[in-house]
Amino acid sequence: RSGMLDKFKEKIQTECDVLLLEEVHFLSGKEYTQNELVFLLDYLLDQDKTVVFTSLKLPQEIQKIESSLRSRLSSGLIIKLNTPDFATRKKIIRYKAKKKGYNLSYEIVEFLARQIRGDIRQIESVVLGLIARSSLLKEPITLSLAKELINELGIKENSNQIDLVIELTCKFFGITK
Questions:
Q1: Does the structure show a pLDDT above 90 at 127?
Q2: Alpha-carbon torsion 43, 49, 54, 59, what sign?
Q3: DSSP per position, 111-174
Q4: Residue 75, helix vs strand vs coil
């Protein structure tokens, strides 16, 4: 916007060893940006530089993307990262809390790991929210505080989900619980 695009491109070409561009799916419909990125990618790849992209969608699933960019996004190694499993969620919760100086109890870690099924950002958000709530209220982090936060965030407790599945299954098959 400030007329320094050429200077910016030159800086990337001369000083960039690794290009990490997150959430490429947001480039959808942005033709000029996509075209500029194609030229930049060609240059960096010709120079044997490392290029890493992240996206919520596979290249072929991104709407309104130039075929030249889709081709370059598809030409490398594509890895789908799944949401963390239960054991990994527990490790992430402990790590994120410990990094902030908190050692959460076994029951709180277990509870949070069972309730939060999203990605690492959601897990981190809940841990930080729990720590902030504890700090602001000047209360220790307890299971009831964790349950309160989960409830306020609109994350349904798994026991409710299990009950819902049972209820819907019974209704569908016309049987009693």
A1: yes
A2: positive
A3: HHHHH--S-HHHHHHHHHHHHHHHHHHT----HHHHHHHHHHTTPPPHHHHHHHHHHHHHHHHT
A4: coil
φ/ψ region of 115 (left if φ > 0, alpha if ψ in -120 to 50, else beta) reads: alpha
| Tens of pLDDT, residues 71-104 | 988 888 888 877 888 999 999 999 999 999 999 9
Query: 50 and 18 in contact (C-beta within 8 Å)?
Result: yes
Q: Are 96 and 124 in contact (CB under 8 A)?
A: yes
Give the separation between CA 124 and CA 82, rounded to whole angstroms. 16
The answer to whether 25 and 60 are in contact (CB under 8 A) is no
pLDDT tens, 128-174? 999 999 999 999 999 999 999 998 888 765 545 566 677 667 777 88
